[in-house]
Amino acid sequence: MNCDSCQARFSDHGEDRLDGRAAAAFRTHLDECEDCAASLARFLDATAALKRLRIAPTPPQHLAQIMRAVDSAARDTVLLASGAGASDDDFHRAVFRTAATLPRRSERGLLRRVGGYAATAMLGAAAALLIAARLMPPAPAAPAAPVAALEPAAQATAQDHGAPGPRVPASVPAYVPAYVPEEQIRFVSTGPLLKVDVDTEPVARAMDAVGHRAVDRIGASFESMSSSLDHVGRSLFAAAVAARDNARAEAAAAPPEAIEAAPAAAPVLGPAVASAAPALAKPLPLAAAAPARRAPPPVTVRRTGDRLALATAGALVDVVPRLLDLLDDPDAEVVELARDRLEGIRADLGLPAPGDAAAERGALAQFTDLFTASERSSPPQMKTDAERWAAWWKRHRLEVLDRETHGTW
Amino acid sequence: MDDPYAANDEALALTAAAGDRGAFEALACRYGSAVVAVLEKQCADHHSALDLAQEVWIKVFRAIARFRPEGSFRSWLFSIVLNHARDARRRTHRSRVVFLEDFREPTEPAVQRDDSGRSHEQAAIAAALERVVEPFKTAVFLVDVLQLSYDEAAASAGCAIGTMKSRVNRGRLAFRDHYTQQDGGPLAVEKSSGAAP
């Protein structure tokens, strides 16, 4: 054992934790080394002195202060939890008992912080919108395109939509002026005004440098904030210009007489098809500033010259009711097309042909099962679809009976 | 509880967790001075230690429902104290405002500062202990002054028992050196009386 390892065991020796070979080696080294023996004696004296050290008693009023602080914390906890005060003779005891059994306030504190952040963000957004609304310049008037300048195909598409007239394609002007003059929001740094040349005290120089760094950071923050406001304003202005152009395009659309002035572009369709045209035709391609897309109509009937075309798109639950409506159209060609398409759908679904009594009973049972299942767990849409399918099926049966009875289709 | 001051710490803590204000007050009375002393060693300022002690007891009040009687209340309490002192040091370090008036040397040695009426020997011991660096000072204070066991001291400081034993031994060695070299120590007494060579 050397002197270092011997000194490392002073505490163990003083507390009688050395045993066996370690204690023997320790005693052997002490017998051989007078320095370590003297050091151990001083160590034991110092340890004994340490144990004589008494901690200073705190002032008597300190305990009262502690209990007042604890009572205040307990009262806050109870009031925050219950939302109301209390008046009891033994108020502190009651509040302490209630607060000690309450859960921690960390969750409520977290919610308060999150709510505070959300409120701050909302206030900032509202302020940005207010600034943008106040500083936005009047938008330049876009010239309305005459109806005659439109292509016939565009006019026909517009009338397929049921629009009173062709639309003017809206477009965002290439130049979007900044709504916030940059001179009004640029932060003017006051750093140089605060600069004082102090070259005598190093502490003063350090504090001066810290102050200048703080001012620079504040200036950078203001510049970043102004840049963000500028971006927000530009985006808002672009959206406002696009919305305004769309509104003008709708307002400047051709009056009804404009449609009459171009009869060659209007397709010759039956009244049922014409009445369903707003929902059946494909949408007019919108301007780039209006990104919202309309879903294509489920059924579209178009006549190009002598040729009549029927196009379907979307789910069957949307297509079939439209086709059923077209069966009432006075135009025989439209009715024939709709019937052919319904027959194709029937064949695709594996439904029996009208007149096949055995298969018809199975199909009706299938419909009954489908209707029952939709009543149990499916959304309400299924019930409506089942009813539509049942109506269609019933109509087919009546038509088959009528044809077999009267010999006509 | 009939006599809260006669019960042991764990029973008092459980009673306080059940809502007994008297039990909590007994605990605060029993360990109020020790908490202040530990905080005083950590932040070296008596008035700051008193303020921190209030915050510590509020923390203890809010957390006493989670105290488990399987452990020692003293180790649980002083772990809160040491953690709070560490957080306070970090806060102070982050937001410290230094005034130019504070840049001056202390005119009186710390050994002669005797605000609470301690004797000269007590002041000398306290001054020598003040010169021991952390974490050895806290280890010595917990074990030798507050009479915590090594297990309790290790749990309070968040270290292993072997680490705590090593810290205590090194802290005692450092304290011995400071105590025997300062003016009020036994070595100085021996020198003044002519016993030392």
Distance between the termini of chain A: 119 Å
How would you describe the shape of chain B?
globular
- Spatial strand order of the main sheet of chain A: 1-2
State the share of residues found in helices of chain B, binned by percent: 55-70%
Beta-strand residue fraction of chain B: under 5%
The total count of strands of chain A amounts to 2
Largest sheet of chain B: none
The pLDDT mean of chain A sits at 66
Provide the succession of SSEs of chain A.
HHHHHHHHHHHHHEEHHHH
Task: Note the quaternary state here.
Answer: heterodimer
Q: Kindly state the number of beta strands of chain B.
A: 0
Commentary on this structure:
The complex is a heterodimer of chains A (409) and B (197). Chain A has a two-stranded antiparallel ribbon. Chain A is an all-alpha fold and 409 residues long. The longest helix of chain A has 50 residues, at 202-251. Chain A has helices spanning 3-7, 10-14, 20-32, 34-52, 60-82, 91-100, 106-135, 152-161, 182-185, 191-194, 202-251, 256-260, 271-280, 316-326, 332-349, 357-376, 380-406, and strands at 299-304, 307-312. Helix content of chain A is 65%, strand content 3%. Chain B has 197 residues and is an all-alpha fold. The radius of gyration of chain B is 19 Å and the shape is globular. The model of chain B is unreliable at 106-114 and 187-197 (pLDDT under 50).
